[in-house]
Amino acid sequence: MNVRERRKLVLDGILGVARDGMLACRDALSLASRLGVPPGLVGKVCNEEGIRIVDCQLGCFGRKTKRKASATLEHQERGLLPAGARVRFNVWIEDEQGRLLYGRGRQEILEAVARSGSLSAASDALGMSYRGLWARLRNSESRLGMKLVESHAGRGPDSGTSVTEQASELMERFSEFEKAVAESIREAFQRAFGDKKE
Predict the structure, then answer these.
(1) In angstroms, rounded to a whole number, what is the distance separating the alpha carbons of residues 133 and 111?
(2) pLDDT tens digits for 148-184?
(3) DSSP-assigned letter for residue 65
(4) Apex CA 181: angle with CA 178 and CA 182, to 5°?
């Protein structure tokens, strides 16, 4: 079985069990075992197709467990942080079903489209597949109920792909929100851990 056939087999398996653009970790691991492929391949195909792996308890797909996070918090609360410890965070916006609406990844995609004027160039710049980038945009457009990008046919200066006015406003507001969250977290970290650097 060549690489393309193997990928198609994995994708067919994912599409058979994924719901609303999400795949439970246990289903991803079960699928990998059933197909005899490494879990990383299932994760890679999900990433390329814009399918999010959720409820991961083992960290197999790059998601850390809540138990690990709370253990780290207990470690920090006892004042056991080494010198140079920094706080890291990621913030995103979900709908009421827990599906991703918008976050740093979508922001980076739209920024790349705005810079390059092309979905293809944006996907190259971000090291993503065109299909994966387009799937992420479509998912967000569908869940947000608005267009994020628009294409203009032709070969002139106005041709290509651009972000919509609504997308520009969303990008600006998300950037402001992210900065405010970062400042709050830095302040909270400073209060909790004294002279530690963020």
Answers:
(1) 13
(2) 999 887 776 667 899 999 999 999 999 999 999 999 9
(3) P
(4) 85
Report how far residue 84's alpha carbon sits from residue 70's, in angstroms, rounded to the nearest whole number.
Answer: 20
Half-sphere exposure of 84 (CA within 13 A, CB side): 0
Cα atoms found within 13 Å of the Cα of residue 65, Cβ hemisphere only: 9
Would the pTM count as exceeding 0.70? no
Q: Which residues contact 2 (CB under 8 A, 6 or more apart)?
A: none
The label of the residue with tokens 């994966």 reads 132
Distance, in Å, from the CA atom of 138 to the CA atom of 116, rounded to the nearest integer, reads 19
Query: Residue 22 — φ and ψ, nearest 5°?
Result: -130, 150
Q: How far is Cα of residue 89 from the mean position of the Cα atoms in its chain?
A: 13
CB 168 within 8 A of CB 148: no
User: How far from chain centre, in Å, is Cα 145?
Assistant: 19
Half-sphere exposure of residue 177: CA atoms within 13 angstroms, side-chain side: 14
Cα 112 from Cα 124, distance rounded (Å): 10
Please name every residue paired with 19 in a beta bridge, in sequence order, or none if there are none.
22
